[in-house]
């Protein structure tokens, strides 16, 4: 269920709220009788009719208002309701009022649909990360960069602008669109809940020791590489890191804070990315591997890099926390600013 919406995202399809709502009378998709609708949201009866409130981040107000207020006017006219929206930049609730419960419910449902659609168009603002920027790893990464440029700089497209910022080396578990402080707090709270529910049991209260070794590419043709990443695996050979990553994403998807992209999290640390070539400020990661919305890019020939550095050893590191990291930011260490974190030990 997506924040601000009662639409569910499942296998790439979207359903009407009454298809998948869980309530006391819900038996299965389509089991919401017209004369006894499910409680998709709270509609309060007042002295003047009915009222429904919905929390909406202020950056999304404009989509409900529309150009010159046309969207709101149309909603009000067609549902016979009045829709009150806070002033731009002021966090609050949209309040729908009307003489008839059905009109208020209809307006709320249509607002949810709009919010759901436009939220998906927002660029991600935060991501769950595991930092790999310990000094020893950074040193080995800089050695990797130096040797690649020394041995492969004549290969098509290979240049120093492709390489990750060593201070921001990391694993990305999933991306989020968090549009106000309330949503950021919800994500932080969920991280702590995950720690209590399953993370501590998996880690035994100890950091996870991983090895970063070997390089691989994302696309089909190594001669036309866009992303080169270092492979990450548990030193003890277990799948504990993969299990934690998958369960975290599953929990965040279920909460509506994250959209499901893949069946499993791909554990990888981007070391070279053609996005960096055109925009030095672009995120030094590949949060959604293979996503078609990437900017137009100039690929590089990675054949020699893959051959010469197939087993390059970046080092061993202890992972001690999962961070809620803010995109386009830096802390005093050069890593992304942290809004909250789940300590593994």
TrEMBL record:
Residues 48-116 form the K Homology domain. The keyword Phosphoprotein does not apply. Coiled coil: none annotated. Keywords: RNA-binding. InterPro entries: AKAP7-like_phosphoesterase, ASCC1, Cyclic_Pdiesterase, KH-I_ASCC1, KH_dom, KH_dom_type_1, KH_dom_type_1_sf. The keyword Manganese does not apply. Transmembrane segments: none annotated. SUPFAM superfamilies: Eukaryotic type KH-domain (KH-domain type I), LigT-like. This is Activating signal cointegrator 1 complex subunit 1. It comes from Willisornis vidua. The gene is Ascc1.
């Amino acid at each position: 269920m997506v924040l601000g919406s009662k639409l569910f995202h499942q296998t790439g399809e979207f359903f009407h709220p009454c298809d998948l709502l869980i309530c006391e009378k819900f038996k299965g998709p389509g089991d919401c009788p017209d004369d006894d609708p499910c409680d998709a949201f709270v509609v309060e009866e007042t002295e003047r009719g009915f009222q429904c409130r919905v929390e909406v981040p202020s950056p999304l107000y404009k989509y409900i208002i529309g150009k010159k207020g046309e969207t709101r006017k149309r909603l009000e006219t067609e549902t016979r309701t009045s829709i009150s929206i806070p002033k731009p930049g002021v966090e609050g609730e949209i309040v729908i009022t009307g003489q008839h419960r059905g009109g208020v419910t209809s307006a709320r449902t249509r607002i949810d649909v709009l919010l759901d659609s436009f939220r998906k168009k927002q660029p991600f603002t935060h991501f769950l990360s595991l930092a790999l920027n310990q000094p020893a790893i950074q040193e080995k990464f800089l050695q990797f960069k130096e040797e690649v440029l020394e041995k492969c700089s004549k290969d098509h497209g290979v240049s120093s602008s492709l390489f990750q910022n060593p201070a921001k080396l990391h694993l990305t578990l999933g991306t989020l669109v968090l549009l106000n402080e309330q949503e950021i707090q919800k994500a932080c709270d969920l991280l702590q809940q995950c720690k209590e529910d399953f993370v501590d049991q998996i880690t035994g209260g100890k950091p996870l020791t991983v090895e970063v070794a070997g390089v691989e590419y994302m696309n089909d043709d190594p001669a036309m590489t866009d992303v080169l990443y270092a492979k990450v695996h548990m030193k003890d050979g277990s799948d504990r890191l993969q299990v934690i990553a998958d369960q975290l994403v599953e929990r965040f998807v279920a909460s509506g804070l994250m959209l499901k992209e893949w069946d499993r999290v791909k554990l990888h640390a981007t070391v070279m990315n053609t996005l960096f070539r055109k925009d030095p400020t672009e995120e030094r990661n590949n949060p959604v591997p293979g996503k078609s919305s990437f900017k137009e890019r100039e690929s590089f020939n990675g054949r020699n890099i893959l051959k010469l550095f197939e087993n390059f050893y970046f080092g061993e590191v202890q992972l001690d926390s999962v961070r809620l990291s803010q995109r386009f930011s830096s802390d005093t260490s050069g890593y992304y600013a942290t809004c909250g974190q789940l300590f593994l030990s």
